[in-house]
Amino acid sequence: MSSTGLVFCVIVISITLFLPQSLMALLPPTIFVGIFLAVERRKETLKAISYGFVIIFPILLYLSIVWILIVGAAPGSNSRQSAFLYVMTLCSKLFLFVVFLQSTLGSRLAIGAMRFLSEVRLPKGIKIISAMTLSMASTIRASAEKAWISLVANNLLSPRIAWKNLRNFIRFILAIWMSIVGTVAMRLQTKWALEDVRQRLGDHFSSAHERSFTRRDFLWAGHALLTMGLTIAFKLR
Amino acid sequence: MNASLRIIGPNFSGRSRALCDLLSTQSRRNTFYVGPYAESGLSGIGATVGEELGFYGFDGNEHSDIRLVDSFAARQNQRVATLSGGEQTLLAIKCYDLSGCNILGIDTALEQLDSKNREGALLYLSRLHLSGRKYCIIDNRQMCEIPNGDTMIQKVENDEFPLTLDGIVRTCPAHRAPKIAIRLLQFSYPRSARVFTNVSLTLSGGRAYRLHGPNGSGKSTFLRLASGVLKPTSGILYLDGKEYYPNRRGNEIIAWAMQDPDHQWVATTVQSDLSIKIDALRGRPYACLPTSTAMGTYLECFGITKKADHHLLDFPKALRKRLSWLWPLSGILPWIALDEPTLGQDRNTVLSLAQALTQIIRRGLGLMFVTHNEEFASLIPHETLVFGDQTIVPQEVA
């Protein structure tokens, strides 16, 4: 699939996933995501699913405690069963969203965000903002790695599972924040300001070769739109 | 401006500001800036070497005039963040070469390069005028005369942050650093080439060791292994003859000042940063906790007595670099590790640090340091550990 086709499918499926209000209505997007993973991302399916579990499980735990155990009812109703369905629907949507995002954009961006953005057919302004935002992502990652090194070297964290990791988690976040602010402030004040990085990005994207829809893209885009239609039909029923 | 301009002056004299002001008067599309640390050396737009090069116009073919040691052509998929400081500077110069910009501004970045790469970079700069390009540089090291070059001298009226390390040396406790023995150490990063193969060596307290080798030869990796951040693939560390597993039990002996100071803070002020690090060591056998009055002395040494509660990021970067030495120089842990401690520091500061370290070593503490500053290294009596080809080889006493 081309980058442009991928972005189109992500947008359509992301909107679709937030339409359903019941588990039944989630069926069409679930089938779409399942087929997409099986056909397009065979080898990465397991990785995407496990990624989804890692992200969603703590949220599921938290929402279950709050809505099922403490509140004991879903918004607008007063039974524990409705709270259970509410939490399950919400987490299923989030799970599918994370899995789909990871298996589509996640894997492409990991290979090269700039290459991906150069290929995709989007307004230049959006591409520039995306490139700048994604540069923040790699800064955060680098800062987290450095902060981890610092805190382990100073006995505040352990590379193994330990209570002190939980106890000093907030220090870890603070260390990452200090590193990010130091890096970003320096970069914005000097490198980016002196070189006009935004303009350079604009030039870079102007000269890049954008790839338009392929036949395969049209096929998946059609399926994505069909999925959206079916979900809306489920919702209206 | 002539073909080149060198800005000279002590720390806090406004050298960096002068450089930025000068560059900002030029057309921004023609300006390329290489700052003192990675965050301002590279644009950060590209996550990998290939992307960063591509952003500045690399088309996959090597046809530039630059003749630096590392061409990066074979390392396109490597993440920029995993490059050493020196490699990032080389990559930045490579990007400049590709960018087509006319003016290059370098703020102390060349200080991160090993002698071979530095020589290559300086040679490259000296030839820029042949293609009608200019450069402007701040560098604290010895540099050859630049033909056709200008010099701008920046002066400082009042030293805002006077450095007097005598106090910290006085308060530094005298304790014999334990002997570190490394036996058959092997290490490789996941899905990467091996960094060390069967390395065995012994480091004794009361001595200084210079970790020396080309950029990217594993010096920082060695410090990470010794302080428990990384787990050796195989091999054992011994501390005074007893098996030592810093990766399991935590680092008990090394106080480490990193290359970029902003990567090592665990709090927002100097005082709280030090207090937290001290608290984490309570009950550890090799830690020698400071007296209650020591903090006042530390602050005085770095000239920040009246600014003790200032946010660390409010201080200039050169001062933050100095403050990063506080933790190791306090002598709370018996081994001191300094990764490029003199980056961005003027000559007087370098001399003060070398003098303080020499005195601290005499008290029995051990020192491991990474530096490409030959003058600084020559001021500290040391043994050299040569890194390269997956080994560490001790050399004769300097």
Fourth CATH level, the homologous superfamily of the largest domain in chain B: P-loop containing nucleotide triphosphate hydrolases
Number of domains of chain A: 2
Structural class of chain B: alpha/beta
Number of strands of chain B: 15
Query: pLDDT under 50 segments of chain B (min length 5)?
Result: none
CATH class of the largest domain in chain B: Alpha Beta
In the sheet with the most strands of chain B, the strands line up as 11-12-13-8-14-15
How many extended strands of chain A? Answer: 0
What structural class do helix, strand and pairing data of chain A support?
Answer: mainly alpha
Backbone CA Rg of chain A: 21 Å
Radius of gyration computed on alpha carbons of chain B: 21 Å
Average pLDDT of chain A, rounded to a whole number, is 89
Q: Hey, which two chains have the biggest interface?
A: A-B, 52 and 60 residues
Question: Outline of this structure?
Answer:
Chain A is mainly α and 237 residues long.
Task: Lay out the secondary structure.
The complex is a heterodimer of chains A (237) and B (398).
Chain A: H1 3-17, H2 27-40, H3 45-71, H4 80-119, H5 124-153, H6 163-167, H7 169-195, H8 197-207, H9 215-236
Helix pairs in contact in A: 1-4, 1-9, 2-4, 2-9, 3-4, 4-5, 5-7, 5-8
Chain B: E1 4-8, H1 15-24, E2 31-34, H2 38-41, H3 49-55, H4 85-99, E3 103-107, H5 115-126, E4 134-138, E5 149-153, H6 166-171, E6 180-188, E7 194-203, E8 208-212, H7 219-226, E9 234-239, E10 242-244, H8 246-249, E11 254-257, H9 270-279, H10 294-301, H11 317-323, H12 326-329, E12 335-339, H13 347-362, E13 366-370, H14 374-379, E14 383-388, E15 391-397
Parallel strand pairs in B: 1-4, 1-5, 2-3, 3-4, 8-13, 8-14, 11-12, 12-13
Antiparallel strand pairs in B: 6-7, 6-9, 9-10, 14-15
Helix pairs in contact in B: 3-4
